[in-house]
Design goal:
Elements (H helix, E strand, L loop, with lengths): L9 E7 L14 E6 L2 E5 L7 H8 L8 E3 L5 H4 L2 H7 L4 E4 L8 E4 L2 E4 L4 H9 L5 E3 L4 E4 L2 E3 L16 E2 L16 E4 L4 E5 L6 H10 L6 E7 L7 H14 L3 E5 L4 H11 L11 E3 L6
Parallel strand pairs: 3-4, 4-5, 5-8, 13-14, 14-15
Antiparallel strand pairs: 1-2, 1-16, 2-3, 6-7, 6-11, 9-10, 10-12, 12-13
Helix pairs in contact: 6-7
Pfam family, one: Lactamase_B
Organism: Desulfobulbus oligotrophicus
Protein name: MBL fold metallo-hydrolase
């Protein structure tokens, strides 16, 4: 996908995260509000318990939403879908067909469902089909905002994302074929937004660059899912990220304390751990 234009006006605010600024509620989940060149977009919805209240606190009107994107089908990214669609009737909804698959986390023989809540799937069944877009390839939302589509696995160190399976017996590993990311082409460079980066953070950044003629990565925001990663994978991720040399790194949600510490040591002030209520100006002169 070759683009020759970038937007001059874009900003974002984290609406759901495990951490929060004073006055913002928290939960295990992620949601990011993006305004880009007049387009209003919500990337994930958290579990649904704090999204609306945090949106009001941040001055975000969910009713004005143009596009809703689900990064993948876990409950902590899709649970607020019903509430969002109750407020916004005309938005376009984007997700991979695999987002509605049954999914389980299995640890020490403890089986826990982590799939999209059933009530949310019921809402999807009733949602106008002309507003529902099943994402199975790269998608352009406007002149300089797009979705990666399914992410190719290229790195050798970004393997399993954790003890996730498509069946309760643990015989079918969840490969997260539905995992996708959002990218924004700005005058500073490429901003990449990830939900959990189950396909691997570096795989995701490489794919976003391939779809944008190798444009430099200016910023990456979201969950990096390194919370259960060993030290070797964290170090390899940090080393690879250093080669991209982003100006802004905002680890959220599932990144994990050890990974955040490694990122802060490597990138200093360029790493700003995320929290609900944090806002970002993504265009204009770099600060």
């Amino acid at each position: 996908m070759s683009l020759t234009t970038s937007i001059q006006d874009a900003g974002a605010v984290i609406l759901v995260d495990n951490a929060g600024l004073p006055g913002f509620a928290t939960e295990h989940g992620f949601a990011l509000w993006v305004e880009a060149d007049g387009m209003r977009l919500l990337f994930d919805t958290g579990q649904g318990g704090v999204l609306s209240a945090n949106a009001r606190r941040a001055g975000v009107r969910l009713a004005l939403l143009d596009h809703l994107v689900l990064s993948h089908g876990h409950y902590d990214h899709t649970g607020g879908l019903e509430e969002v669609l109750h407020q916004s009737h005309n938005c376009m909804l984007h997700c991979h067909p695999g987002a509605v698959s049954p999914r389980y986390a299995i640890r020490n023989h403890d089986v826990r469902s982590v799939q999209m809540p059933r009530e949310v799937m019921t809402v999807l069944d009733r949602f106008p089909q002309e507003q529902l877009h099943w994402v199975q390839r790269p998608v352009l939302l406007n002149k300089a905002v797009g979705l990666t589509g399914p992410i190719a696995r290229k790195t050798v160190f970004e393997g399993s994302s954790g003890p996730f399976f498509l069946d309760q017996s643990g015989h079918r590993p969840d490969l997260f074929d539905d995992d996708l990311a959002l990218w924004i082409r700005t005058d500073r460079g490429l901003v990449v937004c990830v939900g959990c980066a189950h396909a691997g953070l570096i795989n995701t950044l490489m794919q976003a660059q391939r779809q944008n003629d190798g444009m430099r990565i200016y910023a990456v925001i979201g969950g990096f899912h390194l919370v259960n990663a060993d030290r070797s994978r964290i170090d390899l991720t940090v080393q690879a990220l250093q080669r991209f040399a982003p100006d802004l790194i905002v680890p959220c949600h599932c990144t994990g304390a050890d990974a955040v510490a490694a990122l802060r040591q490597a990138f200093g002030d360029r790493c700003r751990p995320g929290a609900a209520g944090m806002t970002f100006q993504l265009t204009g002169a770099a600060s």
